[in-house]
Amino acid sequence: MAKRAILSDIRIQTWLLLGPALVIYVVFAVFPMLDVIWLSAFKWNGLDPVKEYVGATNYVDIFTKDPVFWVAFKNTVIWTILSVSIPPMVGLALALGLNQPIFGRNSLRAVYYLPVIIAPIAVATMWRWMYNPFFGLFGQIMTLLGLGAYVPDWLGSRDAALYSAFAAHVWQSVGFSMVLFLAGVQEVNKSLVEAARIDGAGRWGVFRYVTLPALRTTLTIVLVLAIISSLKAFDIVYGLTGGGPAQSTQMLALWAFTQSMQIFDFGRGSAISVVLLAVTLAVVIPYMRWNQKREEAAQ
Amino acid sequence: MASVTISSVRKTYGAVSVIHGVDIDIRHGEFVVLVGPSGCGKSTLLRMIAGLENISAGTIAIDDKVVNHLEPKDRDIAMVFQNYALYPQMTVAQNMSFALELAKVDKATIRQKVDAAAAILGLEPLLDRKPAQLSGGQRQRVAMGRAIVRNPKVFLFDEPLSNLDAKLRVAMRAEIKSLHQRLGTTVVYVTHDQIEAMTMADKIVVLNAGRVEQIGTPLELYDRPVNRFVAGFIGSPAMNFLRGTLQVDQAGLKVASGSVIAIGAYPVELTGRTVEFGIRPEHIQVTETGGLDTLVDVVEPTGSETHVVADVAGEKLVALIRRRMPISVGDRLPIVFEEGQGHLFDAESGQRLILSSGQA
């Protein structure tokens, strides 16, 4: 009886439910996060039993002596700016279109969402083929259109590679924001749309004064998630260009990985990761607080 | 102010027809209530006047101008929705001025109109609040304010009081009616609540299954319903109906149990006809001696009156008694039907046979 009484205690039940996940989070998320901060103060090749304490040297080095860090930083910023503008805009346009009573609407929604469920590394492999200047899809299409002489080296050119990789990212990620926007658009109060039409609003007016304000929460969520995923952008770039040519598509997350796992400078790799972590937290913490306030207000 | 003329209007969704050729004439400044049970097509009809639904056939004209193909914004109408439909991100003042701003009216005029409407509706202290900070009644008033500032030809109300509690509903009912008297604008008002219809309307249109059953003033509908549907729909508590065969020689109605219930005198040519006899609860009187013998089933005192459900020859009747009487369940209660207050309807078609007892 006593055992049953303990098990029926709501606090015990809560810990029984949360406990296993908490252990996993602590071991695989919290500990590595703290460990990486610790490691960033050392010089270590990942194999030696002794780590040499160097204080803030790794940070000073990446900021002052590592030109690739700044390239990666700039690329990550460009990637983030593009990610918060293009995929959400395309996603919103698709959601508005797919909210109309058109034939095959559900199938189209599935088609547009499909790339989201493909592994980024598979998307990278696919797009690498399509970008092949000799027998890739895009080159073939341009040749068919008589533009064969102008087929660029999509992934081989330092000027084009980042944007070519980003196009693949848009193709993969747009379905995600589309689904979130679609859910938001479906929640728009129909009476409000009708009231606006009677008040004299045209299509743009209805969008501006009814649809868009109703999508404010969705829009914030989409933008914050886009920022977070851009800051940690790794796999699709790794699969498409590996950071090249000549580091022109290098990203912070990829550079941290390269420093640690390929150059075996774990201290510097960790320092880059900590910078990335700080930037991410600067975005995530206000978002979490906003979310919490919103939930409290809803209650 | 404007007239609204609805001529042979039909509405179909694919093969399904929901409005079957409706004709209604609404005069300048009239308060017309479209009333009927759920699914009768009243809201659809209102939305067709507003331009929110296409008209499958027939015409709707506002001030003699056919508006079938005009956008809602070009019909010079304002609509108050059941759920208020206030823009949540805008303040009360912004909600009220929105239509005028879209119409590029100058700011001074907008301010003046919003202030005037706010004064009429007692909204002045709320002008800077957002809809979420208002009570249901306040939101309803803002929705009306939004309609008033536009000074439209026609106000359309779509069950505007349904989301309010009973007390507020009565208060808002009076407010809307006094507003109409003050502004004199033509109103088309949809409700499923016949009390709302009776208390507010100059003219009631009773709709059922996409057809007009009767159009008339509240008292015309109450006193002379053209068919059994209107008779049963208008009035609360509802009219009582007894189905049976007329026995004119006995001034009675032979009901299913074989008993003959005294209903008063009717023309002899109706003898043997199967009818439904209707009598309103307030036209049933408790008598001291004689009358019909009933057995009391349910007693519902409301304070001002008492509703008594009684069994007479196997049929249930509701009587509305205004004087205080010691009545209990199981009592035997002798009743009579007031002379000349009965209604006869053909049992098959439901159409009225005689306007009141003894009158052809």
Automatic annotation (TrEMBL), chain B:
Ranges of residues in domain ABC transporter: 4-234
Bilayer topology annotation: Peripheral membrane protein
Keyword flag Transport: yes
Chief location bin: membrane
Keywords: ATP-binding, Nucleotide-binding, Transport
Pfam families in the record: ABC_tran, OB_MalK
GO biological process assignments: carbohydrate transport
Molecular function in Gene Ontology: ABC-type transporter activity; ATP binding; ATP hydrolysis activity
InterPro entries the UniProt entry points to: AAA+_ATPase, ABC_transporter-like_ATP-bd, ABC_transporter-like_CS, ABC_transpr_MalK-like, ABC_transpr_MalK/UgpC-like, Mo/tungstate-bd_C_term_dom, NA-bd_OB-fold, OB_MalK-like
Localization annotation: Cell inner membrane
A GO CC term attached to the entry: ATP-binding cassette (ABC) transporter complex, substrate-binding subunit-containing
The organism's place on the tree of life at top rank: Bacteria
Chloroplast recorded as keyword: no
NCBIfam families named in the record: PRK11650.1
Family stated for the protein in its record: Belongs to the ABC transporter superfamily.
Name of the protein this chain belongs to: Sugar ABC transporter ATP-binding protein
